[in-house]
């Protein structure tokens, strides 16, 4: 009898499927979207035994986070002894009850090979839009040169005796400060965000000239303007970066995948690169070379379903490296950006920040004093120009649906540039 019962248990579900209870389909997991980024800019001396409490400012929120960490520019294996995340209360203090230890395939630590990146497992931490997050990284060993981002324009904190301190909610063990971000290169969120916009550029995007510890870079300003669309904004700016050749970090073409196209949920790429090539040594003198590089960027982005906004190069007369020949190149490059038909939309930052009475210079109200970068007001003007261009790519969702969607690159209808 027992054998008959066992046979029937196997055969009946197949013979009489209508008599068995249906299995509920598992809901699809919510997608990951990039909420914050910093591009590796170089290396600093290792901090063996220390814990760095990096302060990062998110753009969009979500119900969980994961952290990207990098040994991309290191030369030796990097041992991460502990990584924690928490909402920031003030200074190095965490909001009580929000600190979580991140894991790597379930383990509390990981060793990252030189030249490689890693990402944590999902951390069940609900984060609101535009929140400050503490990402604390403890490195127990001397792992050689530390991959970092130099121009953070954000105060982070350091515990020299970091063993066990990554899990501190109270920041009392973090008396030292740093103006760099160590190891951390991104924070993704899982939730209802509609995707992200990647701001890809040099120091003008990185934030030079804006007020530190205030999040007034133009990508930060843009994030506020896009909040109603639930679009994240990732700052892939790198001070000193060039379009055509390596400078500070690899060239734009060389770092495009790692710093832009591979980022979670990337929907739009905003390209604001080239002025360092014009004023560099040797200076780039052929606008056609810029045109070829821009075309290559756009082709690669479109192949990934990502639309591209081109940003005109802004004035810099008065800066020590300015020359009349360089100005002629800038004008030629801008003519191509505006009318070349390569970009899906154009943000005319040149028109937004130049002095109408002297268009080879930045408007005095936007100039922090070096005649190249932008102060807080200038950053807001650039953000407005990019936001205006993005309106050509953002299309309203069907009535009754709160989302705003971004059409994919190679399969969407061709949109005219903002220049017409």
UniProtKB/TrEMBL annotation:
Gene3D superfamilies referenced in this protein's UniProt entry, alphabetically: SGNH hydrolase (3.40.50.1110)
Region (Disordered): 396-420
Annotated Pfam families: Lipase_GDSL_2
Segment forming the signal sequence: 1-24
Keyword Signal: yes
Keyword entries, A-Z: Signal
Top-level division of the source organism's lineage: Bacteria
Domain SGNH hydrolase-type esterase: 199-381
Protein name: GDSL-like Lipase/Acylhydrolase
Organism in which the protein naturally occurs: Streptomyces cyanogenus
């Amino acid at each position: 009898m027992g054998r008959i019962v066992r046979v029937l248990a196997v055969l009946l579900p197949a013979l009489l499927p209508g008599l068995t209870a249906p299995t509920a389909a598992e809901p699809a997991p919510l997608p990951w979207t990039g909420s914050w980024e910093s591009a590796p800019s170089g290396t600093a001396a290792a901090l063996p035994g220390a814990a760095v409490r990096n302060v990062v400012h998110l753009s969009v929120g979500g119900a969980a986070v994961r952290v990207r960490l990098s040994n991309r520019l290191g030369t030796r294996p990097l041992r991460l002894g502990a990584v924690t995340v928490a909402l920031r209360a003030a200074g190095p203090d965490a909001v009580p009850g929000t600190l979580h230890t991140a894991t790597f395939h379930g383990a509390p630590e990981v060793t990252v090979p030189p030249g490689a990146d890693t990402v944590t497992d999902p951390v069940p931490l609900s984060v609101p839009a535009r929140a400050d997050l503490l990402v604390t990284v403890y490195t127990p060993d001397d792992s050689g040169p530390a991959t970092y981002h130099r121009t953070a324009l954000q105060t982070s904190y350091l515990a020299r005796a970091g063993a066990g301190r990554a899990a501190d909610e109270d920041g009392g063990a973090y008396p030292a400060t740093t103006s760099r971000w160590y190891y951390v290169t991104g924070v993704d969120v899982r939730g209802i965000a509609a995707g992200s916009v990647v701001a890809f550029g040099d120091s003008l995007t990185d934030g030079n000239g804006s007020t530190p510890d205030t999040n007034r870079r133009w990508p930060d300003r843009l994030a506020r303007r896009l909040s109603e669309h639930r679009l994240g904004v990732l700052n892939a700016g790198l001070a000193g970066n060039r379009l055509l050749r390596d400078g500070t970090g690899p060239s734009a073409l060389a770092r495009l995948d790692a710093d832009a196209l591979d980022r979670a949920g990337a929907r739009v790429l905003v390209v604001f690169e080239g002025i360092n090539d014009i004023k560099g040594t040797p200076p780039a003198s052929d606008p056609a070379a810029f045109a070829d590089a821009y075309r290559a960027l756009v082709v690669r982005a479109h192949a990934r379903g990502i639309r591209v906004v081109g940003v005109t190069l802004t004035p810099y007369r008065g800066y020590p490296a300015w020359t009349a020949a360089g100005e002629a190149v800038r004008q030629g490059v801008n003519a191509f950006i505006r009318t070349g038909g390569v970009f899906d939309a154009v943000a005319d930052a040149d028109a937004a920040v130049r002095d109408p009475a002297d268009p080879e210079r930045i408007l005095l109200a936007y100039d922090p004093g070096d005649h190249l970068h932008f102060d807080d007001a200038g950053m807001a003007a650039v953000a407005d120009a990019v936001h205006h261009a993005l309106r050509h790519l953002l299309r309203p969702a069907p009535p009754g649906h709160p989302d705003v969607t971004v059409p994919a690159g190679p399969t969407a209808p061709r949109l005219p540039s903002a220049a017409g």
